Amino acid sequence: MVVINYEQVEESCNELHQLAKNMKELVDKINNTSKKLSSNESWNGMAANYYISKMDRLCKNFDEMFAEIENSILYMAKCSGGYQEIDKVVMNEICINLNIQSPNLSNSKIFF
């Protein structure tokens, strides 16, 4: 079992989002390079076709991977938000029953 706090979940989501964004920019560059090479009459033949097909395959498969990363980020954020709301409600009830002030839960631990 892994124990992390809500801030760490948010940091992980931000890191994954930045990674996905960087990957998207890189794939766009690869796609543009492939298009340039495809239209370049001075570079053709078996080697050119081989590398162009590899670049095209990478770009076509990337969309699925990008969607999976983005969906994972959304899922993590949704789960974290749900747990955070539950923690607030439970903590509020405990504090009301004990007649004490509710603590800040931003560093509370969650379990995955």
3D architecture notes:
The structure is a single chain. This protein is mostly helical and 112 residues long. It has a single domain, classed as Helix Hairpins (Orthogonal Bundle), CATH 1.10.287. The chain is built from two helices and two strands. It has helices at residues 6-39, 46-98, and strands at 3-5, 109-111. Strands 1-2 form a two-stranded antiparallel ribbon. The longest helix is centred in the middle third of the chain and has 53 residues, at 46-98. The protein is rod-shaped and about 80 Å long. The mean pLDDT is 83.
Question: Which features characterize this protein?
Answer:
2 strands; single chain; 112 residues; 78% helix; mainly alpha; rod-shaped; 2 helices
Quaternary organisation of the protein chains? single chain
Q: What's the gyration radius in Å?
A: 23 Å
CATH class: Mainly Alpha
Give the count of structural domains.
Answer: 1
* Count of helical regions: 2
CATH names the topology as Helix Hairpins
Question: What class do helices, strands and sheet pairing give?
Answer: mainly alpha
Beta content comes to 5-15%
Distance between the termini: 6 Å
As residue ranges, the low-confidence spans are none
Report the principal-axis shape.
rod-shaped
